[in-house]
Amino acid sequence: MRLSTWYPHPLLLLLLLPPPNPEALSTRVFHLQTPKLYLPESFSTCECDPSKSPHSTMSMLSSRLFTITDQSKLASSSSTFLFPLFPSHSRSFSRSSRSSILYGRTHVAKPIRASASQLPSAASSVTVENSESESDPSGTLFVIRARNRIGLLQVITGVFKVLGLHVEKATVEFEGDFFVKRFFVTDSHGAKIADPDSLDRIKKALTDAIEDGGTVSMGPASPTTRGVMVRRPGSGLGMSLGSDSAKAERMFRLMDGFLKNDSISLQQDILRHVEYTVARSRFNFDDFEAYQALAHSVRDRLIERSHDTQLYFKRKDPKRVYFLSFEYLMGRSLSNSVINLGIRDQYADALSQLGFEFEVLAEQEGDAALGNGGLARLSACQMDSMATLDYPAWGYGLRYEYGLFRQVILDGFQHEQPDFWLNFGNPWETERVHVTYPVKFYGVVEEENLNGEKCNVWIPGEVVEAVAYDNPIPGYGTRNTITLRLWAGKPSDQHDMEAYNTGDYINAVVCRQKAENISSVLYPDDRSFQGKELRLKQQYFFVSASIQDIIRRFREAHSNFDEFPEKVALQLNDTHPSLAIAEVMRVLVDKEHLGWNKAWDIACKIFSFTIHAVIAEGLEKIPVDLLGSLLPRHLQIIYEINFKFVEELKKRIGLDYNRLSRMSIIEEGAVKSIRMANLAIVCSHSVNGVSKVHSELLKAKLFKDFYELWPEKFQCKTNGVTQRRWIVVSNPSLCALISKWLGTEAWIRDVDLLTGLRAYAADPDLQQEWMMVKKVNKMRLAEYIEAMSGVKVSLDAMFDVQTKRIHEYKRQLLNILGIIHRYDCIKNMEKSQRSKVVPRVCIIGGKAAPGYEIAKKIIKLCHAVAEKINNDTDVGDLLKLVFIPDYNVSVAELVIPGADLSQHISTAGHEASGTGSMKFLMNGCLLLATEDGSTVEIVEEIGADNLFLFGAKIHEVPKLREEGSPKMPLQCARVIRMVRDGYFGFKDYFESLCDTVDGGKDFYLLGSDFESYLEAQAAADKAFADPNKWTQMSILSTAGSGRFSSDRTIRDYAEKTWGIEPCRFPSDG
Questions:
Q1: Is residue 7 within 8 Å of 102, Cβ to Cβ?
Q2: Rg, Å, the chain Cα set
Q3: In angstroms, rounded to a whole number, what is the distance separating the alpha carbons of residues 578 and 576?
Q4: Would residue 804 show up in a list of annotated catalytic residues for this protein?
Q5: Active-site residue among 567, 804, 811, 822?
Q6: Residue 626 burial (CB count, 10 A)
Q7: What is this structure's pTM?
Q8: Where does the secretion signal sit in this chain (predicted)?
């Protein structure tokens, strides 16, 4: 059993017992001849060889107790100490830095058996004295009198340790069967503890720990105290020993230590998984099989932490937040996990001895296809922050079998293929076959009489099962590991068996396929009725299973739903999970038989809503006929919610029918529909935008009526990204450089410390090292580009990147037209002038929705232009254009660190936040951007001089559209004409694309912003030509990125919306 860290004083390490027979001390003596040694966990009569490794010493395992004496007092035998190797039923750290360490020369005498049933004494006492004696003028004396028993010292020292107090020295005396311990204690600053309130709390904690022998709960923290949890032997993590205590005792003894993280142990774990999990010979396995074994080895450690975290949450019973998001882009899990666990180097060393490189194996992992774009990656960042900040949280989503799609480019055209990301399994997930819930569809609603009252009963026409798959999310610098629970669809066992038993095998297969289809594909094409129905099925399947799971967990500890809002917060991440509102009402009213008003009051207290849409067309609506067919009871509930809301609204605003119509949850249009955003706003106690600009748009335009009704509901929570993924994992060279110049790694958790880089931004030494890091990252990206496209690029060129979902409002077309203009200018230059041109490598990446033809044409135009430019010898390295296919998180981790300039050029007023700019900013990439989304706040943080702004502002856009586009700038007209005339081929194919700009529409203002765009590009060229200035701007960009960490976002949610507190698993187990 590995032991947790102890204070480096023998008196604090050992529990005093009455002096044994002096003759016994000479019988079997174990000499510790080194001043600092890992304490062996076995007993031997031979002398310890200090040259032996800790591993060889620690291999001698035992669960005995040893009497140990301080060698300096061996002759008089006046004091003998009992060192408890008896299992404490709490896991202990396995890192070498956390092992038990003895200082000084000590002797180990014969083993002594001890009983676990020794009880604390009722005559225990704790007194406090702030003496000014010469012996210890600065310490506070705590005198503890108690009956001697096993494990008591662990309890006492554990209290001091958890409270952050330091024991300077200790003395021991005996009074019959009692001992009297005197601890001279200082606070974390080495000073006396003078605050009477703090002294009372410490005294109470010690008294409770001694007399109760277990958990001590303290009131509100004072400056020197906080809540204390001390675990005694046998207590576990809230686990009852039950009637068969001997059996439980044995189980604890067998599993009371964490998995070890030394090189030998890691190698053994990996090879064990090669043979027993991957089922390959340990003498013959390839890189992919090594990765699978490695991933399972890491997952073992994640599961340890996850189990302990959930048990701790269960014991403390805090208010929890449940994060409902329809998509997550987790990226690769291996590197992120081992870094957050703090064992990346240990694994790298272990693998190198086996002949493998960690980086090579990490490349074997595929991305989990659970989302698309910024919303999905935002969800993943927020989960990482919730774990790191120790919040009691669960994430819920769907386990898509194929994800969105895999983008394949053939002849410049996008083709969609299924993303078979689960073909080889997912080593990070755990299927919870015992966690399944029935999800109902179709059917009818009937009224029944229950205790003299009418109640609605939904008789479904179809039932499928939701099966849970758990994915651990580790926090950084903490033992807390939370869970992302994903649901997969399976057929109902009863229906399945009925079909097979009657010989209807075809129907059984069809039913299975229909159930599994629910969680097969992210965002099925909803242009058909079947597609719309499947998408609605997905949404309800997701929220129904999640709500059942949340209520089941609440029911385990509580029977009264009055407590529900005090223990549960539900966060709706956009409108996709908004059906959860109707589902909660159905469960509370129909299943729990609460009255409507009480159920509605509960629902309004638990829901909060984050909206990501910026225009009315982007708001989700569900046809009433479809909802009534698929979920008849939920349609009734939504009608009832709307009726009561409208009636109340009439009392507030009168009979303003236009406003009543706009605010109604039911839209009475050509197709009668449910406005899901309106439903979410009506029920939620908090509604937030995701940037300052976006939040103001919600209040001034999109939901102006609701804001005027409930101004207190509307908040701003600017999105953020996690620095652990986007610097520590994706850019380790920059991470090391930042830590070197800041003199600490604390910024990885406290990202505001990055502002310290501002003081060194002009330092030539930092600039030189900064440029070297950027060059190394550009080299990695250049190698990838050449391998992927065959295009060789110059490292001296500016790497100009735009990687986003392909959409007209994101204006990749503006970027391409600007590239054509640059190409045209170079072609028309004299050769002598070309030497002054700043070389560029233009990189574009992103996917177009399968049914979005204009976006697909933009991709084809990009490839047509690239084909022309990259093969033009007149241009050479002055300009290259590359399209990166199937852009995902792993590719982003390669592209973002290597980018010099990043374009965020959406039409002002169309980007809610734009987390992509934050990732580039953290990596010291300069931004060329419109004043949209989070860019406005970035300008506030780093200054307008450190990025390149252009284009119409938000308030100017409506007027420009009303007036119609002015005359097309000559530069823009020329490049459009080149495309129309077939200079890049496919003349007819690109005709409709050109019409969106100069066909009298130009809704996204490409022509209007073109000149301003070129001016910003020229300013970027000028800055890049001055390496010192550019590097200084780059350093200042990183220094100002702390405000855009998801840690800040999550703290804001926790404090102002969810009302939850951190619940940190104790670091001492």
A1: no
A2: 33
A3: 6
A4: yes
A5: 804
A6: 18
A7: 0.79
A8: 1-24
Q: Does residue 91 carry a pLDDT above 50?
A: no
CA distances (Å), 369 to each of 316, 401, 520, 522, in order?
A: 35, 8, 11, 9
432 catalytic? Reply is: no
Which of 57, 436, 803, 915 is flagged as catalytic?
A: 915
* DSSP state letters, 725-782: IIIIIT-HHHHHHHHHHHT-SGGGT-GGGGGGGGGGTT-HHHHHHHHHHHHHHHHHHH
Region(s) of the chain under CATH 3.30.70.260: 121-236
Residue length of the chain: 1069
Task: Give the amino acid at 80.
Answer: T
Residue 745 to residue 30: CA distance in whole angstroms: 41
Q: Which position among 9, 105, 280, 612 bears the catalytic label?
A: 612
Which class is 733-1043 in CATH?
alpha beta
Range(s) for CATH 3.40.50.2000 in the chain? 322-333+365-625+679-716, 733-1043
Structure tokens at 99: 């092992």
Nearest alpha-carbon partner for 574 in 847, 392, 327 = 327
Q: How many CB atoms lie within 10 A of CB 872?
A: 14
Q: Where does the pLDDT of residue 121 fall: very low under 50, low under 70, confident under 90, or very high at 90 and above?
A: very low
Residue 878 neighbours by CB under 8 Å, 6+ apart: 826, 834, 837, 839, 840
Residue pLDDT, tens place only, 473-500: 999 999 999 999 999 999 986 555 565 5
Cα separations (Å) of 151 from 1, 16, 308?
15, 11, 21
| Residue with the two structure tokens 């291996």 | 334
Q: What is the DSSP string of 234-300?
A: TTTTT----S-HHHHHHHHHHT-SPPP-SHHHHHHHHHHHHHHTS--BTTB--HHHHHHHHHHHHHH
Of 623, 813, 612, nearest to 697 by C-alpha is: 612
Rounded to whole angstroms, the Cα distance separating 1013 from 1021 reads 13
Confidence (pLDDT) at 12: 32
CATH of domain 121-236: 3.30.70.260
Centre a 10 Å sphere on the Cβ of residue 792 and count the other Cβ atoms it contains: 12
Crossing angle between the packed helical segments 596-606 and 632-653, to the nearest 10 degrees: 80
pLDDT at residue 623, rounded to an integer: 96
| Parallel/antiparallel/unpaired status of strands 568-573 and 607-610 | parallel
- The fold of the 322-333+365-625+679-716 domain, in CATH, is Rossmann fold (3.40.50)
Catalytic, 717? Answer: no
Choose, from 535, 840, 919, 1043, the residue flagged as catalytic: 919
Instruction: Pick 145 or 420 by higher pLDDT.
Output: 420
Task: Output phi, psi for 284, to 5 deg.
Answer: -150, 90
The interaxial angle of helices 1006-1024 and 812-827, nearest 10 deg, is: 60
Q: Residue 151: which pLDDT band, with cuts at 50, 70 and 90?
A: low
pLDDT digits (tens, 9 = 90+) for 635-675: 999 999 999 999 999 999 999 999 999 999 999 989 999 99
Q: Is the dihedral of CA 139, 143, 148, 151 positive or negative?
A: negative
Q: Which of 633, 805, 856, 1064 is catalytic?
A: 805
What pLDDT sits at residue 493?
A: 66
**Segment 235-240 long-range contacts (CB within 8 Å, at least 24 positions apart):** 235/89, 235/90, 236/89, 236/90, 237/90, 237/308, 237/311, 237/312, 237/315, 238/311, 238/312, 238/314, 238/315, 239/311
Task: Pick the catalytic residue from 399, 406, 810, 860.
Answer: 810
